[in-house]
Give the backbone structure.
Amino acid sequence: MPRFTGILGKDKAFELYWRHVSSGRVEFYKSVGFDVVLGRREGVWVWSLDGRRLLDAHSNGGVYNLGHRHPEVVEALREALDELDIGNHHLVSEQRALLAEGLSRLMPGDLNRVTYSVSGGEAVDFAIKLARGYTGRKEIIYARGAYHGTTGLAIVAGEDYYKKPFEPLAPGFKSVPFGDADTIEAAVTRDTAAVLLETIPATLGMPMPPNDYYKRIREICDEKGCLLILDEIQTGLGRTGRLWGFEHYGVIPDIVVLGKGLSGGIYPISATVYRDELDDFMRRHPFTHISTFGGSELGCVVARKVLEITTRRGFLENVRIRGEELRRGLLRLVEEYPSLLEEVRGIGLFIGFKTRDEAYGPLLSLAAINSGLLAVYANNGRSVLQVLPPLIIDGGHVEYIIESLRKAVAWVYENRELASAVRSLIP
Ligand SMILES: Cc1ncc(COP(=O)(O)O)c(C=O)c1O
């Protein structure tokens, strides 16, 4: 008998959540009929408390790259609990050293240094601090529509919706449109510390950068003496069919930020990985960036297991094969419904299903749930449905996703007059 799921039931969970956690979210979910409360979860599947089984093609943005409760990850944590705890972040740690060595081995060039955090936002904050500390410059250039988290510095590199109510914000940030290296060239000054980008911006709906985009940015940064920070929180750890998303573009960033999937969906941990040269600053300021729970020793054990599984023979090949199958299936839907669907974006299993209207993304999310699929629209590019299944899916799962989306698309097509109602509901 489950002891932690199904104990309240859906209605009671909604009521308590409304009363004690977030009245606003509950009211929004109720208003649009999105009534999922997560119960059992196993592999690529989750079950809502009312018994519906959904294939998780949201994966919490890549947290569930290995599916839910991957048995080897769960076992690694269970074993670690017999000996370890969080550790003491003031002290030198075997587990933190071992994970950093493992990450360095998997990174190209001299990306050999690691600072740990708990969340992605915290790890981005540290990347920005390091860039400012190392260069002695202030400006951070970021892409409009990006999402890097809601902590003090990361939030400034995001959209107004997330940051406007919390002004005054940290100064020194400048935005440019994503995908246009000329605007970056024009924006960089002698006071620019770093260009901060998601390799492919997920929350913006996965717009693909031009092929030479990162090469040009790398050149601009090298010429102007600023750093390139790539947020690989969603694109990292195999999601795109390569271990790191930036490998597709032939560049090596100065700082890489990892989060989400590093946790195996089991134990929160994030990491900021940076080049040897940048250690110059940290050597002089070794006690400036502190995080009690950052790089918990239990989390390090979990993350090492995640890296081991992700780098096994055939793992990335599966991502590429399934990604291609999925893309082909979704392209057929685009051909069948040209007035509703525009294109299939992305790479590997990092896929954006682009519709022709800002309301269709949310409508498709709702319809997908009713077809047995959890997939959510991109919040800063709502015409796009993000399709991010676990990287361990097989051919049968791909067919299931395509069939679920076929039903969902057909439903949206039949009910497209709901678009205006949806537009007025989404905050
Ligand atoms: C690309 C990217 N960067 C940063 C973050 C922030 O991570 P966290 O929610 O762990 O702070 C997210 C979260 O969705 C993200 O998608």
In short: Residues 71-310 form a domain with the Aspartate Aminotransferase; domain 2 fold (CATH 3.40.640.10).
